Amino acid sequence: MKKIHLIATAITATVVVLALLLAPFLITPKPSLSKIILAIQPTQSPLDMRNSAEELASFIEQKVGVPVEVYIPTDYTGVIEGLRYGNVHVALMGSWPAYLALKRANVELLLAEVRTVAVDGERVNATYYYSYWIVPMDSPYSSLEELRGKRVCFPSQVSSSGYLAPMARLVELGLIAKRPGEPVSGRDFFGEVVFGGGYGQCWEALRAGQVDVTVLAGDVSYELYIKAMNSSKVIEKQGPLPSHAVVVSSDLPEDIKQRLREAFMDLAQPQHRGLMKRLVSALFIGFEARTAEEHLGPLERFIELTGLQYS
User: From CA 82, how far away is CA 221, in angstroms rounded?
Assistant: First the structure.
């Protein structure tokens, strides 16, 4: 009986040793990354962006050491869906779509764009900016409260600086109230609401006397900013508003994330800035590491205050 026990013990020990030796080979290895899919939220026609996008993909590929394929969908939803289903690994996005991507997909904020903007009349390089309610210099109105029932021009319903944040400011000031389950509307306060299609168009409408008030953002061209500010008066402001962002799949290996971070940071070098100015923003200076809360926290608050959706 003792002999049988010794044999059983020896067999057990042998099995354990073999299991330990074979363990590395029995574990299914994680497949290596064959290529990185870079998505860019379109800021112009995808066809017009193609050459610059391919140039960016080539730059990142050289820095990261993994083939990079660029994807330019027709709108922001294509980027978010690509991130959700693992068909996109890294994306350049506007702040509001980036916020939605963080909510809907398994991604994290990699970097925030640094751009040259105007903050209270001063040109600064920052990851944020503000927008301002302005009226003509000779306007009888000096506060938003006085403009109830008047005419307003907003640049776009999907502009975070030109509509979302200004509407949140009206809520903060108690001038409008959000009803449960419903987004706020400019018509909750103003008598006539125009969506002009851009800050320049709204500024021209204000100059022509077609509206009583409009909004101007600190990330418009400095020429437009100075021209508008020198001919009008600011009655309110809102912000900070976040710049563009780079988001990355949380499933990517940490070393790849770090190499991507370094590659995008290198785009701040003067010889590379022109590429990003053509592709993303004429105000581009570089990128900066920020957490999602630091960069997108104020935007989230504006969304919660207004119930507005990016659509």
Answer: 32
